[in-house]
Write a structure and sequence with these properties.
- The chain has 232 residues and is of the alpha+beta class.
- 33% of the residues lie in helices and 21% in strands.
- It has helices spanning 4-27, 71-78, 80-85, 91-99, 116-125, 131-139, 150-154, 220-224, and strands at residues 39-41, 103-108, 142-144, 156-160, 165-173, 182-189, 192-199, 205-210.
- It has an eight-stranded mixed sheet with strand order 1-4-5-6-7-8-2-3.
Length: 232
């Protein structure tokens, strides 16, 4: 006769598997994760899907970083504000990235900081009291140990960064309030548009240049509770 505890375990396992199977069938998703990459599966039938989409490559085919020193020189030269004010503030993250054989970074351009809202956020993150939030913001802009290309990003439904999951959407032109439009080949990462993507010359880092920070908006709740010293 089957042991009662074994029977209970087998029954519980079977019910759990049935629940997962039912969830996958009703969610309309291909798979939760794409094997081998920190990207989330895109829904099988996105509302804006069109067979006439022209894929934009964001410059990765014809543009590479010109620095012989790799990622550090690229960051210091092309993305100094992001590197010095945010990424470098997270020592643990930076040590993890530099010890990895590969990495993917989402770097706001220098022009992005001219935006009033982004400029405000930068000022808040420079407040020493917000160091912990700054470190968390930095972690959402990095994937350690993997190269995620523009094509992989385009075909994903999201990415798994060091900080956590961030949604990825395809940009659409035309239509009304996002309905009835057609994909134009671009992508946004949590609302920030990917301007271009390229590998560093040493091929150890993929850079996706974005026009805003990509971390979850919930993080701003913490910094909004503090008044910036010297402000009115």
């Amino acid at each position: 006769m089957m042991n009662l505890n074994l029977f209970t375990l087998l029954t519980t396992t079977a019910l759990a598997l049935l629940a997962v199977s039912s969830t996958l069938r009703t969610s309309g998703s291909s798979s939760l994760f794409v094997s081998g990459f920190s990207i989330v599966g895109r829904p099988a039938h996105p509302q804006t899907k069109t067979s006439t989409t022209t894929r934009l490559h964001f410059g990765e085919d014809d543009e590479t970083a010109t620095s012989d020193d790799g990622i550090l020189s690229v960051l210091e030269t092309s993305y100094p504000t992001f590197y010095n004010s945010i990424l470098k503030k997270n020592n643990a993250l930076w040590n993890t990235l530099t010890s990895s054989s590969q990495m993917t970074l989402f770097c706001p351009s220098e022009e992005a900081w001219n935006n009033a809202n982004t400029k405000k956020r930068l000022e808040q993150l420079q407040d020493p009291r917000n160091l912990e939030v700054t470190e968390k913001v930095a972690s959402y802009h990095a994937i350690a140990g993997e190269i995620v290309t523009a094509d992989q990003l385009f075909n994903s439904g999201g990415i798994i960064t060091v900080g956590g999951e961030v949604p990825v959407d395809r940009t659409v032109k035309g239509g009304l309030f996002g309905v009835g439009g057609t994909e134009d080949g671009g992508v946004t990462v949590n609302g920030a548009k990917v301007v271009k993507s390229f590998l560093t010359q040493d091929e150890k880092a993929m850079i996706h240049e974005v026009d805003a920070l990509i971390n979850p908006n919930i993080l701003w709740r913490y910094v909004d509770q503090l008044r910036i010293p010297g402000s009115s």
